[in-house]
Known about the structure:
By secondary structure, this protein is an alpha+beta fold. It has helices spanning 14-28, 52-59, 79-83, 103-109, 152-159, 166-169, 178-202, 218-221, 245-254, 291-300, 307-324, 331-345, 349-354, 358-368, 374-393, 400-425, 472-478, 521-532, 536-559, 588-597; strands at 2-7, 33-35, 69-73, 89-99, 124-128, 131-137, 142-149, 262-265, 283-288, 434-438, 454-457, 565-571, 573-578, 581-586, 601-609, 620-627.
Amino acid sequence: xxxxxxxxxxxxxxxxxxxxxxxxxxxxxxxxxxxxxxxxxxxxxxxxxxxxxxxxxxxxxxxxxxxxxxxxxxxxxxxxxxxxxxxxxxxxxxxxxxxxxxxxxxxxxxxxxxxxxxxxxxxxxxxxxxxxxxxxxxxxxxxxxxxxxxxxxxxxxxxxxxxxxxxxxxxxxxxxxxxxxxxxxxxxxxxxxxxxxxxxxxxxxxxxxxxxxxxxxxxxxxxxxxxxxxxxxxxxxxxxxxxxxxxxxxxxxxxxxxxxxxxxxxxxxxxxxxxxxxxxxxxxxxxxxxxxxxxxxxxxxxxxxxxxxxxxxxxxxxxxxxxxxxxxxxxxxxxxxxxxxxxxxxxxxxxxxxxxxxxxxxxxxxxxxxxxxxxxxxxxxxxxxxxxxxxxxxxxxxxxxxxxxxxxxxxxxxxxxxxxxxxxxxxxxxxxxxxxxxxxxxxxxxxxxxxxxxxxxxxxxxxxxxxxxxxxxxxxxxxxxxxxxxxxxxxxxxxxxxxxxxxxxxxxxxxxxxxxxxxxxxxxxxxxxxxxxxxxxxxxxxxxxxxxxxxxxxxxxxxxxxxxxxxxxxxxxxxxxxxxxxxxxxxxxxxxxxxxxxxxxxxxxxxxxxxxxxxxxxxxxxxxxxxx
Length: 628
């Protein structure tokens, strides 16, 4: 059986093409053939036997980079399980030629047991919303069967476009209240999803409209839009060093974990690396030291939130905002809030930008806190937090209340479309468990030995980013002041935050553990280099960081199952001022040595372009693949 994995035509980075081959190789458990141009395959058997419609489908909307897909010749395997997980592919085709009596057995083996014998009389079969089967009969009784699969990830990315369609964009004329307004929007979303699924099956001869006035879903999904598609809740909040969702999802596949397994991110941040795990039937645990990161991750990973309760809470909130604005006396609380923010920011530019909006922000926050459901309250507060970040980064004349309402509506509609599509595809958004734990990855006493099926993470890159500064005002408004005890997350590398007691006893006491930690030669060489360059403070930060990372490696080794994998995304190189000159130092090998020093085997290193919005001092990343 041939399997052709056709990459998305709108890949955002050429490196994604090569990462896509890594992913499909892992999913198929074989080495695929790199296909530069798909049309050249039409000269080969069995592609030269395909009908025109199938050839048109395969060669339509191909990537214009260095390659267009990957080909494998393998025994029949369950392809449906693969299309539920694959990241970088617009379509995946399976093609096989066999005797008539074998067709049903092969279809069953690739994950399509629902096809009936009488259906094989048809030239085209649509067994489900994401599959098409094309059958061609030969005179000798054999049949050429082509199965076209639409990967779930592609459909979930495209479903975010339905909220741009006229039925969902324009406020209906008969909307007299928020209840009716949201009902009409939901009807528009559902109509758009039906249009999307129908178009993906039958709209392949339609040319997209590129200009203004787009009215058809094909105008949005059939061309490489410059707009970044934002599936699920990946982009609901700005957070330093946030990983690219496509890379994150593919990393889960490189771990070779199966449904029901559990993955761990020991430096989970805002949850980007594990947010897709529930969509793939995988359980996930994240460890995060900052309350703001944990709170964002809790929301981001909760795609199965009760939409009925959420809509009721949003309508109640909007009605409250519309009828009660500024009727409350907030002068005393507003004064206290301003003083607190002024104290921690020193009246910097961010404070000056946000100060005119603080009264309205405080009003919205108090209105949100009336919500009874804690999950919904957290969701609403995080969206408010994002507006705080936006308004503290740039001077904005617009009303923050209207901006918040618009953003909340947008995120609700994304959730609504995601849940509706999940129902159609049979994806249980609450079928897997995700737990975000406030804690320290150097002391994961909440996890037993040999219980984790795979680890993936992107730890802090030495001293490249401050994960607190851009969220400082938001942290203060949300009342997460504990996050500011370190001033900078670099302070967390210090020995006094390492502990040997239970994980939930923060802040931690001073331990002498650091003094007994042996670092590899590559780590010591870097520390000595910084010390000789009169960078005493910098050398100490780096030394603390490396010791912390070694302790984390030890804990990860302890909890990971035998022969399982740990994928770490880390900066390939780093720049420091040494003896008055900027020096670029290869830092990825230093982390690799640390992993090996606790027992891990380094089985692969994957280089790729930066997958983060906040580059800091980093240009290229390495993915270190360790195995226990």
